[in-house]
Amino acid sequence: MTTTSESTEHHTPTGTARLLPGAPVAEAVLAETADAAARLRSRGITPSLATILVGDDDASAGYIAIKQRQAAALGFASPHVHLPATATQAELHQAIARFNSDPAVHGLLVQYPVPGHLDYDAALQTIDPDKDVDGMHPLNMGRLAVGLPGPLPCTPAGIEALLAYYEIPVAGREVVILGRGATLGRPLAMLLAQKRPTANAAVTVVHTGVPDWPRYTRRADILVAAAGVPGIVQPEHVKPGAVVIGAGVRYDGRRLLPDVDEACAEVAGAITPRVGGVGPTTVAMLFRNAVRAAERANQ
Ligand SMILES: NC(=O)c1ccc[n+]([C@@H]2O[C@H](COP(=O)([O-])OP(=O)(O)OC[C@H]3O[C@@H](n4cnc5c(N)ncnc54)[C@H](OP(=O)(O)O)[C@@H]3O)[C@@H](O)[C@H]2O)c1
């Protein structure tokens, strides 16, 4: 699912922790993606990320426009279908099916949210898993679980890339994730426990079933907030010197309310900024997934 935290602005916290903005990570991922796209074009293949928008939500239309500009900058094609707010579930599935069967389309996303009468999750399940640039199709979750190649869920992959970019050791260290949601906590746990140099961590996942979760977060070398509960992570939940990744957010209108309280920067050794942390890496991963899908389709 492509969410709304797509701003690249970031604020400086008052504390002493090293800041970990997502924008340079995203730039590095996009530069690699542009190189991969150029290699494909030299073989006569234009990588393509298709988008579907349902309805007239201004913010959603804006996010599509950002992706189309990014696609153009990377040398991608970006075919787009705009369905009216009155579109039926069947019409949405037909639009997906047309992109699924088009060999020139390598990646496909449906902009979230869709109008309330439509079932977004049901639509996602009709996307060809090999074109699922959000990496959220159940088959891709299964591939992640067993370690098969396939599109990775964007926010978890973005967090792994952010840790790698800032050379934060993960292997052998204790990672605690607050939240086991399907888009973030659960796939991130699978990703960071994989046997790879940028993962290979001891991962613990805590949630509402673990009322004394601070007992776990206080011992984390790397704490990832993925709950969507504003201010849930307070300084007393953080081990001094730990790395804190704030991925969970809630929106109050257009105002972003992060899980991680600003004061955590006084305790952490390194921390993502309140705005412009994980979000920019998520968007970059869409394009990395799309170019990798194009490579796999043209091996
Ligand atoms: N930055 C980005 O680009 C990006 C991308 C995707 C998602 N997100 C954000 O990440 C957050 C999580 O997304 P999601 O889809 O995984 O959400 P979700 O499915 O709602 O999961 C939230 C998780 O947090 C846990 N939780 C909630 N309140 C808690 C509490 N008081 N104590 C302990 N655990 C608590 C829940 O526990 P239970 O399972 O026990 O209910 C659940 O596991 C959201 O804020 C979302 O906006 C950000």
Overview of the molecule:
- With 299 residues, the protein is α/β, with parallel strands linked by helices.
- The protein has 9 helices and 11 strands.
- The chain has helices spanning 23-42, 58-74, 89-100, 120-124, 138-146, 154-165, 185-192, 214-217, 279-297; strands at 18-19, 49-54, 80-83, 107-110, 174-178, 202-206, 222-225, 243-246, 249-252, 255-258, 270-271.
- The strands form 3 sheets. The protein has a 6-stranded parallel β-sheet with strand order 1-11-8-7-5-6, with helices on one face. Strands 3-2-4 form a 3-stranded parallel β-sheet, with helices on both faces. Strands 9-10 form a two-stranded antiparallel sheet.
- Bound molecules: NADP nicotinamide-adenine-dinucleotide phosphate.
- NADP nicotinamide-adenine-dinucleotide phosphate is lined by residues 3, 5, 155, 178-185, 207-209, 213, 226-229, 232, 247-250, 278-279, 282.
- InterPro entries: Aminoacid_DH-like_N_sf (IPR046346), NAD(P)-bd_dom_sf (IPR036291), THF_DH/CycHdrlase (IPR000672), THF_DH/CycHdrlase_cat_dom (IPR020630), THF_DH/CycHdrlase_NAD-bd_dom (IPR020631).
Walk me through the topology.
Blueprint: E1 18-19, H1 23-42, E2 49-54, H2 58-74, E3 80-83, H3 89-100, E4 107-110, H4 120-124, H5 138-146, H6 154-165, E5 174-178, H7 185-192, E6 202-206, H8 214-217, E7 222-225, E8 243-246, E9 249-252, E10 255-258, E11 270-271, H9 279-297
Parallel strand pairs: 1-11, 2-3, 2-4, 5-6, 5-7, 7-8, 8-11
Antiparallel strand pairs: 9-10
Helix pairs in contact: 1-9, 6-7, 6-9
NADP nicotinamide-adenine-dinucleotide phosphate binds at residues 3, 5, 155, 178-185, 207-209, 213, 226-229, 232, 247-250, 278-279, 282.
